């Protein structure tokens, strides 16, 4: 309950999604248990076929997490020591962490203020002769501006790895996220629009050779068994997770539309409350289809506002409070505050509000009313 006696509004309510599917999900888990096939196998193969169709790609390779999807693609492309990979300084840590894990150097670019996605002009400035790949992030469920990025990559002769871990089902000019660049990387972490009952991930590509390498690397580089052509890793997906995802996948379009409907409702409520001049709302540029893995607003005194909302029983989250260039682990890259000002502004002002498909209109009204009360002159 809120301090005023109203209902609490969680940031995410996985039970609301689970309850209608409970019997079907438990039956899928039982099917795997009865089969005795728990790693890869038929469930994973069927999921890969279904996801390839849904995402309009030739190849979909299921892996153990979104992090491992990025890692496997970097390894498959042969990126390593002495190489540079350009990416956004504003994302979940795995984006930059995986670049470092293969021995390459992450080179950061700033974001566009309106979308929080990587700024192509900043990417151009970051190019060097050592640049081996470009990794844009489709942050919060909105595709990056891919046309100029694809032009930059083509001119430089480098691949694009789409970090689509928050963007399954998002589209750019009619094309699915993960189908535009050389490869796409997805996460099935439980909080994602399509979430498993644990970790899971996916690599997508239209390059048959790259798909073969990723499949090889996800199983310790062995082909055939115990004969290791490359040093890979254990990036295999559990059959139990595949079975859960197969139950959920047909519902993804409806869940996405629910998130989009809730985003539109938020926009309307914020404007009706007279808050649109104070609170910067998410945008959906022309030719984009936003799937709202997060609904992130930007507002003054973010930390105070978050604390006040928490006291009222309203869940929020900060994605992400410290950009990569200011993280302690990247201090050796020599960056300082002010190097990427748009990312720093977003890190200081961004606040994610509840947006899941099952969120009710009454709950949204509670959120906006609480924000209006908190932001009113004191």
Classified by CATH, the class of the largest domain is Alpha Beta
Quantity of strands, as a count: 12
Estimate percent helicity: 25-40%
The main pleated sheet reads as: 4 strands, mixed
As laid out across the biggest beta sheet, the strand order is 1-9-8-5
Structural class: alpha/beta
Q: State the order of secondary-structure elements, H for helix, E for strand.
A: HHEHEHEHEHEEEEEHHHEEHHEH
What would the principal axes of the Cα set say about the shape? Answer: globular
> Helix count?
12
Oligomerization: single chain
Residue-averaged pLDDT, rounded?
96
Gyration radius, to the nearest Å? 21 Å
Q: Identify the CATH architecture of the largest domain.
A: 3-Layer(aba) Sandwich
The poorly predicted ranges are: none
In terms of DSSP E residues, the strand content is 5-15%
Estimate nothing, just give the exact number of structural domains: 2
End-to-end Cα distance, whole Å, is 24 Å
CATH topology of the largest domain: Aspartate Aminotransferase, domain 2
CATH homology-level superfamily of the largest domain:
Type I PLP-dependent aspartate aminotransferase-like (Major domain)
């Amino acid at each position: 309950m809120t301090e005023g006696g109203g209902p609490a509004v969680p940031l995410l309510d996985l039970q609301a999604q689970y309850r209608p599917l409970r019997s079907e999900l438990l039956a899928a888990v039982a099917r795997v248990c009865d089969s005795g096939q728990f790693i890869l196998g038929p469930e994973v193969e069927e999921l890969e076929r279904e996801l390839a169709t849904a995402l309009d790609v030739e190849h979909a390779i299921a892996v153990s997490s979104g992090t491992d999807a990025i890692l496997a693609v970097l390894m498959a492309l042969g990126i390593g020591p002495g190489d540079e990979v350009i990416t956004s300084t504003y994302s979940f840590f795995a984006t930059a962490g995986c670049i470092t894990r293969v021995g390459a150097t992450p080179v950061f670019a700033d974001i566009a203020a309106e979308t929080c996605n990587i700024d192509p002009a900043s990417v151009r400035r970051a190019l060097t002769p050592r640049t081996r790949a470009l990794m844009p992030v489709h942050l919060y469920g909105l595709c990056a501006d891919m046309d100029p990025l694809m032009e930059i990559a083509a001119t430089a002769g480098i691949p694009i790895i789409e970090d689509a871990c928050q963007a399954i089902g998002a589209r750019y000019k009619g094309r699915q996220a993960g189908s535009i660049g050389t490869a796409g990387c997805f996460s099935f972490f439980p909080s994602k629009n399509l979430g498993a009952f644990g970790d899971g991930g996916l690599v997508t590509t239209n390059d048959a050779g790259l798909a073969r390498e990723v499949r090889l690397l996800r199983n310790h580089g062995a082909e055939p068994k115990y004969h290791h052509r490359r040093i890979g890793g254990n990036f295999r997906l559990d059959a139990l997770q595949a079975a859960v995802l197969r139950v959920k996948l047909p519902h993804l379009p409806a869940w996405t539309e629910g998130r989009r409907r809730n985003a539109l409702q938020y926009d309307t409520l914020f404007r009706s409350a007279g808050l649109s001049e104070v609170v910067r709302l998410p945008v959906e540029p022309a030719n984009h289809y936003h799937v709202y893995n997060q609904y992130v607003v930007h507002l003054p005194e973010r930390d105070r506002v978050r604390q006040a909302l928490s006291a009222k029983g309203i869940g929020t989250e900060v994605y992400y409070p410290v950009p990569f260039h200011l993280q302690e682990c990247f201090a050796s890259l020599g960056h300082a505050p002010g190097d990427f000002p748009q990312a720093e502004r977003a890190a200081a002002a961004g606040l994610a509000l509840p947006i899941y498909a099952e969120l009710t209109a009454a709950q949204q009204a509670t959120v906006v009313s609480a924000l209006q009360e908190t932001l009113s002159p004191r």
